[in-house]
Amino acid sequence: MDDLFNSQADDAGPVECLGQPFQNDKARREHFLKLLAEKLKDPGFRNQEGFPHGTDEAILEMSDPPYYTACPNPWLTDFLSEWKVANSDGTPKAYEPFVSDVSEGKNDPIYNAHSYHTKVPHKAIMRYIEHYTKPGDVVFDGFCGTGMTGVAAQLTGRQAILCDLAPLATFLASNFCTTTSPETFSVEVDKLHSQIESDVDALYRTNDGQRDFTIYSTVVECENCQNQFDQWTESYDEKTKGVAANIRCPACNSQIASKTMKHARTTVYDPILDKFIETKKRVQRFVKIRPNTGPAIEVWSSEDGNSYEKFSQEILRLGVPILEIPRMYESHYKRNLAAEGVTHFHHFYTPRNLLACLRLWNLIRTRYPLFKFAFLNTSWHATIMRRYNAGGGHRPKTNTLYIPALASEGRVSKIYEKKLQDIIRFLAAKGSPTNKPVITTASSSSLKNIPSDSIDYIFIDPPFGSNIMYSDLNFIWEAWLGVRTDIKQEAVENQIQEKTLDDYRVLMRLCFSEFWRILKPGRWMTVEFSNTNASIWNSIQSALSEAGFIVANVSTLDKKQRSINSYTSTTSVKQDLVISAYKPNGGLEERFEKFGSSEESAWDFVKTHLKYLPTVKSQAEGLEFIAERDPRIIFDRMVAWFVRHNTPIPLSSQEFQDGLRQRFPERDGMVFLPDQVSEYEKKRAQVAHAPQMELFVSDERSAIDWLTEFLKRRPSTYQEIHPEFIRQMGAGWRKHEAKPELADLLEENFLKYEGSGDVPSQIHSYLSTNHKDLRGLDKSDKRLVAKAKDRWFVPDPNKAQDLEKKREKALLKEFETYLAFTGRRLKEFRLEVLRAGFKAAWVNKDYQTIIKLAQKIPEASLQEDEQLLMWYDHALTRTEADA
Predict the structure, then answer these.
(1) Is the Methyltransferase keyword given for this protein (predicted)?
(2) Alpha carbon distance 260, 263 (integer Å)
(3) Residue 365 DSSP label
(4) Under CATH, which number does the domain 48-179+433-568 receive?
(5) pLDDT per residue over 228-262, tens digit each?
(6) 3-state secondary structure string, 675-705?
(7) What is the pLDDT of residue 305?
């Protein structure tokens, strides 16, 4: 094989890899390729979860072992052992999470080197890595995509292991993490230029110059008069270069809206398949010619011989992949590609561009992998998915397989040479680091080659439900590579793959469980989250909790330059959320084993957890309320901890809140450790206003929370509370959640001063502060009593416990009516009743009751409530374990 990949390393001389010396890097690669070839012959090796579909030859051609393999990497343990010796300091760098909101743009030579579906800017990841790790530490990314975590690790002097299920992703990651210098690659690019010009660019030559792009227009049939005409001619404006959405029939002048256009169909012979196929009728109408000298010219044109009749013989000789598009969400559910005439891989290309890509592929196939890296980006832009854009920059629609009515056939040679220059700029910006991340193509649900407690930090940008169907979108690229994703372990919500939101959550839980296993105790994982769906958010939170991680902070990541969908869609995410979660240190687990389900274990957890929470979060206006320090959220974290260990919860909510107040200082509604208070108070003294907790009333629990905050500030009568309360019960109220009566909420959760005895301190303090004429009065003064009568207030801790028990008894009584319901679905219910009932059933180990009732409520209600989802998921897990 004419393998120029190693020419740079050949010049560098001897190299050492995993303790073995080699004459040069080419010898290293050949040695490990032979070992990998032997591994591939082992059926047990190929039987691993997530093993991709591809021949031995295709996998070996993509791989650069032991650093990168287009299959599970068998050398991960060897690298970890070597790194452990080199970096013996095992102490963690950070105990608190990275709390600053991060803003990093995408307009960067490294980021723009390939247009993959999603990427987190490497500069953003660098900030997290530098906070959580020290030079030489090992970073892991289990959904690595293009390898931006690897790039960030390289540029910060850390070691990295990257994993992805998709062979395309890991191949791109290996190229993004290359150590090739821009000078070396530039020399190879110059050598290739003349061959590209003679072999590929020649396909676009005309007597007047080169075709920069050619417009292919669908043919429209008027439903009024059945006249057929091409869409481009009737929609293109030569002055503005724009295209009208609605057009008129040139024969009868009927207006035709873009959404109701009927496209004409035709039957053509496909020599690749050797049969006639039905497709949409498309005609060539417009060409942009770039002369050898002078400005580009635009001309109307008819067919120029771009046909299989002209090119099929060479296409067949070069060996086009004959691949039928499998049943996929993008091709068979979201789109109907068969109606477009696209049923096989080669249908994504015009005959000319298919031949151009085949010639180019054969030209660069045995050269630097970076040439293939550039080709893959080019092959996407060479498809008929490339849309005409009046402002220039014709490109396919992002994150979908969409065939436009007006397709722009790009000049493959020009697109490719531009991408080569992009890669040279990318290499120059990166600066040729010497350390190489280790990359494996496998499922993160089974990381058997990585020992437990061996990773210092994890950064992931996982798939989110049905946001993006990665394997579908990778089909074209992986067809060129010859190695395809094994979709069985793909973590998506996908109708075609028959994967529900529950299936997605189970797969994410399996992955998070593996991440928890390989992460060192007391270390951190950062989860970048980009989805507006509450059920996906809760699925991620539930999966994290079940795996053993504890969330300590949520911040934002603004990628600045957003996709067109982010600008135009009201539901798209403008800023991604970043979840900071930690694996508890080993001491906490050891103490839990010793004390079990006891109050001591609960307070030990709280003390440990508070240490991991941010002490101060600054924002432009002052300090930000730290939600994770809210006593109610701390209680939820404690409950999840005990549930995960399948042990009873030793404290009720009110007992926990009372104990919290006795043991830990509280400031501005947030709980701290004693040694954290001074730091917070120092920062607090520098700002004018205390941080405020934001409350959004969406269900009964949040309504009670709102009333608690309201009455703490202003003990009030029913008549005073009612108008304020009604304003809160707006459009944000959850569907299916029964709206409680204000009188019932007050009666069940708060106390009312009836006018007998002394005025309660809370009411006395409020009235004397806000009414001058009531200041200095004794608590039994008739004037004060009259003003205080019928005011509701928050009960003191002793009476609060009695109220909680009374309320829980009433909730469980109503839960029994839900259980007795004989219909298929509960149309309306109280989430507080379900939460109390699920918790009681859990305590009694009555998992079937939880599962039975969960099936009676709408799926969305279950998925969107974090507490219900926690009880339900754990009930399923325990039921499966007992089966």
Answers:
(1) yes
(2) 9
(3) T
(4) 3.40.50.150
(5) 999 999 999 988 899 998 899 999 999 998 888 89
(6) HHHHHHHHHHCCCCCCCCCCCCCCCHHHHHH
(7) 82
